[in-house]
Amino acid sequence: MRNPMNRIERFCYEHPNFGIKNLMMYISIANVAFWVLGAINRPFLSYLSFDAAAILHGQLWRLVTFMLYPPSTGLLAFIAFYFYYWIGSTLEQYWGSGQFTIYFFTGVILTILYGFLIYFITGSSVRLDSQYIYLSMFFSFAALFPDMQVLFMYIIPIKMKYLAIVDAVFFALAVITNPFPVNLLPIVAVLNFFIFCGGDLLSHVRPNRASRSTVNFRKESRRIRREQQSRLYTHKCAVCGRTDVDYPNLEFRYCSRCQGYHCFCIDHINNHIHFTE
């Protein structure tokens, strides 16, 4: 069966203007606005979450506002706003606006469908927000950049993969402790993670890849910059040799599965032999 990611990337390549540029910036602005309104009038937030019964009775705005619901309502919310903005913006730069837009709204649509499914099966409406959509985004970031370090509590340096493991534990507890069928919502909401990043996740857990040494991306980036200073182009495909100077409209990306820092054009990012040394 054909990899869904190949179809998504091909679609985005054929439709370069598809997608919402700086999507996370708009979402973060909405998060802050709703947080402020919620701080002024706390009951206001109850009109933003997903509620199947309320939607079917005419409150259609909930189909949109639930995905803009602040991931936190306390004073630490602004740290969460910045953190998710940074993660989302990085994913957009890595995938492109089109793929990131598809990724985010796939999580939104899956959550909506499951919310209605619970309502029609059980007859009771469950209030949903964007919690698991953001968690899915975080898992994707950790799968793509497992060794990137962040300052936990602005003090303790910790790699993203370890934070993801901690979040996965809470994720599993939510599945175990919540009643059926609500407990399946976290799994449904992160299906887009497995579609987009399942291959990257497997690449980190396969035994035959466990012995690979960690790439020093800082050192590699310095090497790339030195080479670029003596060349007229910025990106060159390691397979076909096309550059962004010869083909200014061609999209280039770096492969996270290759050992080293190797650039490929959109035609070969998913169609090349991965570098192993």
Task: Summarize the SSE layout with pairings.
Layout: H1 4-14, H2 23-40, H3 52-56, H4 62-65, H5 77-95, H6 97-122, H7 131-144, E1 149-152, E2 156-159, H8 160-177, H9 185-189, H10 191-205, H11 217-229, E3 252-254, E4 263-265
Antiparallel strand pairs: 1-2, 3-4
Helix pairs in contact: 2-5, 5-6, 5-7, 6-7, 6-10, 7-8, 7-10
Give a written overview of the molecule.
Helix 7 (131-144) packs parallel to helix 10. It is built from 11 helices and 4 strands, in the order H-H-H-H-H-H-H-E-E-H-H-H-H-E-E. With 277 residues, the protein is mainly α.
Task: Provide a short characterization of the protein structure.
Strands 1-2 form a two-stranded antiparallel sheet. A two-stranded antiparallel sheet has the order 3-4. It contains eleven helices and four strands.
Number of strands: 4
Oligomeric assembly: single chain
Overall outline: globular
Give the distance, in angstroms, between the N- and C-terminal Cα atoms. 30 Å
**Strand content bin:** 5-15%
The total of helices stands at: 11
- Report the uncertain regions: 207-215
Helix percent band = 40-55%
Strand order of the biggest β-sheet: 1-2
Structural class: mainly alpha
The biggest sheet amounts to: 2 strands, antiparallel
Compressed to H and E, one letter per element, the order equals: HHHHHHHEEHHHHEE
Overall average residue pLDDT:
78
